[in-house]
Amino acid sequence: MVTRDVVLDILKTIDDPEMPISIVDLGMVECIHLAPPGVSVAVDLLPTFVGCPALPMLEQMIADKVGDIEGVEEVAVNFVFDPPWTVDRISESGRRQLKEIGVGVPSQSAACQSDLLQINLPVPCPFCDSTQTRMTSPFGPTRCRKIYYCESCKNPFEQLKRL
Amino acid sequence: MDMITDDLKTPFSQLLLSIADDKLIQGHRASDWTGVAPILEEDIAFSAIAQEEIAHAAELYRLVADLTGGNADALAFGRAAEEYRCASIVELVDEFDWATAIARHFFCDHLDGLRFGRLANSCFTPVAGLAARIQAEESVHIEHVDTWVQHLGHGGDDARGRMQQALDALAPHASMMFEATQGGELVESAGLFPKADADMFDQWLTGLKKITGQAGLTLNVTRPAPDAVGGRRGQRSGDFAELLDEMSEVYRQEPEAAW
């Protein structure tokens, strides 16, 4: 029988095309609808960035993989902005995986809602944990990342924007 | 609420189109700088900003298409020049003058921050959630452009002179961003585009002047005359025809193609 958990397990195997962690760890999956049970599946997904170019790829991957579950006849992916995605939705496991590949994730803190307010907070290097770091560009290889440099271990690294 | 009444669909679409068209054209102009910006970081910055502006526009076109039964690609690329609702400031050719590009973004990005703040409080939920995300993304654009206005303002006589000249040249166009869209009062009073605590023009000018003041620059922008007619009513500047022709070239070859 198709259950939400079955669908969720499949979604856990789908990585974001621009970030090598699953869309579940990334906090993009907001809701899984089954109607009537097992026949038609709809996944509500929160885009990380408005109009992110990875979204059509994700839609296709979800349609393919969830569509392969026995008993599923229809798959729909809805992109919704309510509630808004934030970096706080990234799971602990997701944070660890990103740190391992040199991408820092801003710490969870409800008090800091934007990059502007966080400008003076130390950004730890994902490689050596030093806070002797500086931002070299607020724009990076993808729209969700900015570029930092670690003065301590002399490595450049990427940091997710806190938006 | 998820539905709006028929009488509000046209005025609300006009408002959303004015914003989407500003963003599409600003993004298109910004993409001209890919590879030729003064420094590598700005190649990346202007490319990222262009991508974001166009992505924001695409989502707004989708909303308008949902409201009016149209198609987002056709709205973006398939309209006649006089059907666009952008302000002239985004249409102008910058002649690869860096100060002009920065001045354009300075005026536009600050307005985006304010108008998406208002849309984030819209009673129409599909636009409110989207607007909140766009406003957050715009905060990075504002931080970026403010930094450049200050850099150039403090960059010696030549840089300051050019920045001042660009601000002065674009000021009349910046003012026309505030030309009312058709049925503008209706969407305000219906709560679709709710008024903020303070007047948006005053808020905008105060925000800009804070930065120009710190940068040793002056700013002289006035409200548009109530009867002024410009881009929001379909009047296009001389630079638009060539821009539209270039921008829609691929689309026109195969309008039904999936992107």
Q: TL;DR of this structure?
A:
The complex is a heterodimer of chains A (163) and B (259). Chain A has 163 residues and is an alpha/beta fold.
Keywords for this entry:
heterodimer, A: GMP Synthetase, Chain A, domain 3, 4-stranded mixed sheet, 3-stranded mixed sheet, 3 helices, 9 strands, B: 259 residues, mainly alpha, Ferritin, 11 helices
What would you note in describing this structure?
The complex is a heterodimer of chains A (163) and B (259). Chain A has helices spanning 4-11, 55-67, 92-100, and strands spanning 15-16, 19-22, 29-34, 40-45, 74-79, 103-104, 133-137, 145-150, 156-160. Chain A is an alpha/beta fold and 163 residues long. The model of chain A is unreliable at 110-118 (pLDDT under 50). Chain A has 2 domains: 4-79, GMP Synthetase, Chain A, domain 3 (2-Layer Sandwich); 87-160, no CATH class. In chain A, 18% of the residues lie in helices and 26% in strands. The longest helix of chain A has 13 residues, at 55-67. The radius of gyration of chain A is 18 Å and the shape is elongated. Chain B is mostly helical and 259 residues long. Chain B has one domain (6-253): Up-down Bundle (Ferritin), CATH 1.20.1260.10. Helices cover 66% and strands 0% of the residues of chain B. Chain B has 11 helices and no strands. Chain B has helices spanning 6-31, 40-68, 72-77, 88-91, 98-119, 125-153, 156-175, 184-189, 200-214, 240-247, 249-253. Chain B is globular. The mean pLDDT of chain B is 95. The A-B interface holds A 47, 49-53, 80-85, 114-116, 136-140, 143, 161, 163 and B 41, 44-45, 47-49, 51-52, 54-56, 58-59, 125, 128-130, 132-134, 136-137, 139-140, 143-144.
